[in-house]
Design brief:
Elements (H helix, E strand, L loop, with lengths): L1 H32 L4 H28 L22 H15 L7 H12 L10 E3 L9 H18 L7 E6 L1 H4 L3 H30 L3 H10 L15 E3 L2 E8 L17 E7 H6 L17 H11 L7 H4 L4 H4 L17
Parallel strand pairs: 1-2
Antiparallel strand pairs: 2-5, 3-4, 4-5
Helix pairs in contact: 1-2, 5-7
Length: about 350
């Protein structure tokens, strides 16, 4: 950096001297045209030389100070290595810079505004005042998996911050023109979304193990346990979607659901996946889910929600009553009398 600074100073001195020489020449030409006396011209030149000489001396000093700046083989950065470690302050600064690069304000994304019509009209008594984060606008030029990977840093942050920020869910928006034409197309997209998130989470857990587990035998067992996600196991009753050790209850909305379905989207053109941490239900002090419902005289909050959906013409079967795997609830049937679509299985 020293040679660079010196070069700048030399250039600055050159420019200053050149301007003053030009000024002397201009004055000489002017004096001739206005017929100044020789004494006057001599005094003006002496005055300008008194200004010019210090600049010449400074230029000479700079040139003598560092001859290496004219050496093309000179490398001012050679040998300027760091200490071999990062201070806590530097590490925090780098982490903050990277976070600002990959994160976005998930509380102010456009999909939350588009989903507001569902929140406002839903019979769920918690929907209207729920606080959500959401995904960025979908980029059609990228694949579905690439779009989901773009939001993973924010989804990961959500799992760590939702309780402190009193957040209720994370909303993922998928374009209806691409994925909302039928339940089969939508179901396939949902499988790809969940699989992309799970694979990213498993990879993160494996990386942590490789850094922290010193017992090689135990490491192998743990790595094998964290093998790639297998959607064929999602129809087990014990299965639940998990990310960063947070389990989620997932609901979906799409344009093809009729007004009589509890997943009706009230005219929204796009499809939505709502990831609700299961612990959030306990935080809201919801009672345990039961198969029974007091339809005539609702007692619990769950009773009141089910009755509200029924009265709106969107009655749904209670999951506990059906005793079905949770995966059935993620993408519900369009008609309750239809056969179950095994959307989680690859085509």
């Amino acid at each position: 950096m020293k040679a660079v600074v010196t070069m700048y100073q030399v250039l600055q001195a050159h420019i200053t001297i050149s301007l003053q020489v030009c000024l002397i020449i201009l004055l000489l030409l002017t004096s001739v045209s206005i017929k100044m006396t020789s004494t006057t011209i001599f005094l003006i030149i002496c005055f300008l030389l008194t200004l010019l000489l210090p600049k010449l001396q400074k230029l000479r000093a700079l040139l003598c100070q560092d001859q290496t700046m004219f050496d093309l083989n000179y490398n001012p950065f050679k040998g300027h290595t760091g200490p071999g470690y990062l201070t806590a302050e530097k590490d925090a600064e780098i982490a903050k810079t990277i976070a600002n690069f990959v994160l976005y304000d998930a509380s102010k994304v456009a999909c939350l505004k588009r989903f507001k019509v569902v929140k406002t009209n839903s019979e769920c008594i918690f929907a209207k005042r729920s606080k959500l984060w959401g995904s960025q606008d979908y980029i059609p030029e990228c694949s579905l998996e690439e779009n989901i990977r773009r939001m993973i840093p924010n989804f990961y942050k959500f799992t760590m911050a939702f309780q402190d920020l009193s957040l209720d869910a994370f909303l993922v928006e998928l374009p209806g023109q691409l994925y909302g034409t039928s339940i089969k197309v939508f179901g396939n997209a949902v499988r790809r979304v969940l699989l992309t998130l799970r694979q990213a989470d498993l990879q993160r857990q494996r990386q942590i193990l490789l850094k922290t587990q010193s017992n090689k035998d135990l490491l192998k067992v743990q790595i094998d346990y964290l093998s790639d996600e297998d959607p064929k196991k999602w129809n087990r009753k014990s299965w639940v979607f998990e990310f960063n050790k947070i389990t989620f209850f997932i609901t979906s909305f799409a344009p093809f659901y009729p007004e009589t379905n509890s997943r009706f989207s009230f005219g929204c053109e796009n499809c939505y996946l709502l990831f609700q941490p299961e612990i959030a239900f306990a935080i809201r002090d919801l009672p345990y889910d039961t198969a029974e419902t007091y339809w005539n005289h609702p007692v619990t909050v769950r009773d009141k929600i089910r009755v509200a959906f029924r009265d709106a013409g969107r009655e749904y079967e209670v999951p506990m009553k059906l005793n079905e795997p949770m995966v059935y609830e993620i993408v519900k049937k369009v008609d309750p009398h239809e056969d179950q679509l095994y959307w989680w299985l690859p085509e």
